[in-house]
Amino acid sequence: MFRSYQNIDRRKSKIIKVGNVKIGGDSPISVQTMTNTLTSDAKSTIEQIERVTNVGADLVRVSVPDKDSSEALKDICKNVNIPVIADIHFHYKRAIESAKNGASCLRINPGNIGSVEKIKEVIKAAKDNNCSMRIGVNGGSLEKNILEKYKEPNPDALVESAMNNIKILEDNDFFDFKISVKASDVFLAMGAYTMLSNKTDYPLHLGITEAGGRRSGSIKSSIGIGNLLLMGIGDTIRVSLSDEPEEEVKVGFEILQSLNIRNRGIKIISCPSCARQQFPVIETVKKLEKSLEDITTPLTVSIIGCVVNGPGEATMTEIGITGGGNDTHMIYIDGQKDHRIKNKDLVPYLEKIIRKKAKENYKFIN
Q: Phi-psi bin for 227: left (phi > 0), alpha (psi -120 to 50), beta?
């Protein structure tokens, strides 16, 4: 039987809120990214957050290494349209300031904050300002005692660190948090997340940390995050690339779209092209991907260069084109043959009919 994500039993997790975004339970799996601007430069950070919002980001994280950065949050959080997560590593005062200055979530490891008194102060600030938290365990920054115990990062080490940090928050009457156990090694991360998913029902933030550049990082993230999602594990995702944050968001949505979890924008099904192609498939796809980036309405498009697989693919998409002989191609609408075109400049022609269909779909959905 054909199997889809809808047939997979998603892990039952608690629901928390990051600003107005629900994480966990049956809530949509959210896509987030992280800015790479200096957070203290509020103007540049706001502009970058606007760009990631435009490509669909549900949440955004900013690093808060100093007081100038936590102060900048006052301006940043008031001028963006998605919840902001403050990334804190060691200084508890930065966490308190971030919560007071508008952050919707704090990314911390309670064990790194210091004394119980300091942890209680951070928790009070979070509670007073309706701020959730993320326990962020990372294979590259495990606690010294855990590394000494396990000799190297492994799933047991990451999960033990996570469980220790969970206990600190629970012991201080705080339960509004999610957890990540990231590693740059795909198998290490998958092992840790799988193990942790059986030990707790808090929502899980998925990611392969420091995954690499756009190509290699996208592949590693797709394998790791995709496999976990197929096991029903995961409530929010971040693709970590050595690239612009907008690319992280795009790849995140591609992963979700490939698994039919969340559909956003144009989903292009295209052939790799060969000697049978009747028009330049690769060039056409590249240009359409670029020109249609602004469309958010879900729409499937097939672009196939010849009649071998073209008709079959076109019957399963909303817009399709199949290459034919003598520069004549068949256009399909809603899986049905609609009309032939000849000697057309394909990219602007296809863009026009795709935009028309996307507009119709938008009206229908809304």
A: alpha
Question: What's the whole-number average pLDDT of the chain?
Answer: 94
Distance between CA atoms of 209 and 182, rounded to whole angstroms?
Answer: 6
Tens of pLDDT, residue by residue over 108-143, are 987 778 788 999 999 999 999 999 999 999 998 888
| pLDDT recorded at residue 366 | 56
In the predicted model, residues of the chain with pLDDT beneath 50 are: 1-2
The tokens describing 259, both together, are: 């698994």
What is the distance between the alpha carbons of residues 268 and 354, in angstroms, rounded to a whole number? Answer: 11
Residue 5, pLDDT score: 63
27's CB contacts (< 8 A; 6+ apart) are 15, 21, 235
Give dist(CA 113, CA 95) in Å, integer: 9
pLDDT at 364: 65
pLDDT of 72: 98
Q: Which letter does DSSP use for residue 237 in this model? A: E
Query: What class does CATH assign to 8-258?
Result: alpha beta
How is the chain split into domains, by residue range?
A: 8-258, 266-365
Cα–Cα distances in angstroms (integers) from residue 117 to residues 92, 110, 121, 205, in the given order:
10, 11, 6, 27
What gap in Å lies between CA 237 and CA 240, rounded to an integer? 10
Range 266-365 has CATH code 3.10.50.40: no
pLDDT recorded at residue 1: 43
8-258 and 266-365 agree in CATH topology: no
- φ, ψ (nearest 5 deg) of residue 281: -60, -50
Comparing CA positions, the residue from 210, 366, 358 lying closest to residue 298 is 358
Q: What is the CA radius of gyration of the chain?
A: 23
